[in-house]
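Re: export button greyed out
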Amino acid sequence: MAVDVNRSSTRSAGRDRHKASRRRTTLTAYGFLLPNLLGFLAFTFLPVLAALLISFTNWDLLRPAQWVGLANYERLIGDTTFHRVLRNTFVYVLGTVPVQMALALLVAMALNQRIPGRLFFRAAYFMPVVASTVAVALVWRWIFHADFGLLNSALFMIGIDDPPSWLQSTRWALPAIIIMSIWQQIGFSMVLFLAGLQSVPPHLYEAAKIDGANGWHRFVHITIPMLSSTTFFVLVISVINSFQVFDQAFIMTEGGPANATNTLVFNIYRYAFQFFQMGYATAMAWVLFAIIFVVTVVQFRYQRQWVHYD
Amino acid sequence: MTERMTRIALAAVLAAALAFAHAQTTIVWSFWGDPGELPPNYEVIEAFHAAQDDIRIDVQHAPWGSYFDRIQTQMAGGTAPDVMFLNNIPSYASRGVLAPLDEWIARDGFDTSTYLDGLLAIFSYDGQSFGFARDNDTNVLYFNKDLFDAAGMEYPSADWRWDDIREAAQALTVRDDRGRATQYGLALEKNRYPQWVYQNGGALFDDPLAPTEFLMDSPEGVEAIQFIADMILEDGSVPSFDAMAQLGSTTELFSTGRVAMVMTNAARIPTFMDAAFTWDVAPLPAGPTGIRANTLGGAGYVISSTSQHPEEAWTFLQFLAGTEGQSVFASTGVAVPASYANPDVAGAFISACPETVSCQVFIDETGNGQLAPNFPDWREIENTIVVPHLDLIYTGEMSAADALASMGDEVRRFFASR
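Workaround output, generated via the alternate export path:
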């Protein structure tokens, strides 16, 4: 869409022709955007706006909604379960995203080498991403079983007599879900990192090698900066996805024991579809939206300091 | 000539068809269920169609997972089915989407006396009746005879009390060399805690349908919950509820012989009949002072307040809730009929129940059913306050006394905020 306008300082007829063609280009562009835009308006923007309105009411799906002003938001302030849920969600995001990204980068670098079975490993690491969360969660529920699970049997073999009871413990249930999520998400980030790594021009490494840079220097001064735009994308997407964690808690623990794994989206689901408090649920959804919005804006604002596009 | 006759004949057929169609009213009946649960529903419809010619039944079926979303949407749009199979009646009745039945019941003299009082109560709201339960979720004690025999123990008897079952559960628990239970004595279902509180002479609220006071944190309530926790934590004879999410439900544990006793309902009978061991049922043990209590509750039939054919819907509802409809479901033998005091209906259940099982126990235990809380806010209170506190007791992080005290504070604060 970058059309140079200043060049047409010649005759007016030429300018008009130029204008007409520009208008056509613009219309064509909007024409291509339209289907997607309509979808966005109808299925994302309007529902989000409607949710904002609902959050100021006490709608229960059946009776006509009554305007309650900020009452739902005031209720959030004193709701200790909601505070717990917020904390759980932040712990989950902070526990999942950095570890998952670091491991994904490691795996991507390993699988970017010419090693035997490289394709197999790439597929293997990507498999959890395409596997259904329900199936995966059911398997992990068994892995985490306190007495007979795979994990604790392994811990017992290496001499840990008193391993945590994972999903049955208010202290270890959330870490257990974080561990599973890391395993599940590595593949997605890995694929993006792999693509990023393959677009780093090999001559940079060769030149650095000639200049005497060792592996670590090459990683810090070439790989990291050259990958920064990929890293930024992976970070933004991972953070947004992690804030929306739901399936794991829904299937593995139902938010328990004692709300230890209750997350924002799971709590929203309960209030909306189990207790029929649409107003309160949408108020929580808007808090989630605000959190994700602010976090993402901050990420975009600070990207200049470390992200290089070239 | 022939053409004219054909026309007349056609017109006659058409007129007859129209007249016939006009005389019949079609109403919609909705229910949920897995494919295996559906045949009795169609059997009832056939029986109803055979019994009269005026009303035809159309079916709206959805699996459990999507049933309620669909019904809610239809209610909001004023197009709910005429007759619905539904649970949590007060939460719907309070929103005005169900038709009250008292006038019809009085006008037609429909006999409600064979129904358990509590089951009539949970289908009421604000003093009005809104429907009838189909069956009651009666619990019994299933026990694996082979495991009792192997341990050289006597089978559970009708005069067992809490201490008896606790001792038996301990004796029937088998551990491996690392101390892990490979066979549990007893498995429970997490949502059955009210019956334990009742057996100990306690209560959850002063009135389970219109509560003004929370009573579960009384000494009787504390003792009952602590008793369950002790069997899980101290004795290790009962698997923790979180562990059961991984080990399997009461059904799976019992049918694979990994637990000697379970407390659950009649729906398990067909599964257990396939088990590779012999088993029977006994009444639930009485509390320490001899109080008997059982679960009371079940889904049932209601009429939509927006039905275009309320009279026809009521006619069908009477059939469903009467001797004929109840007998059809009772004769599946997988649920204790709600009108359990109707001898024909109870007889249909007993004769469908396997001969090797003491089926009368189900009917007798139904009489001990006691109302669990059932009011519009209960689901939120139970999920956000009661269950998280019970979790802390069952994981051993808090004593029942402390956790229930804190639970009581929060429930009272909840009521105060409304």
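The interface with chain B takes residues 60-63, 81, 141-142, 144-149, 156, 167-170, 252-253, 256-259, 270-271, 273-277 of chain A (CB under 8 Å). The button fix ships in the next patch.
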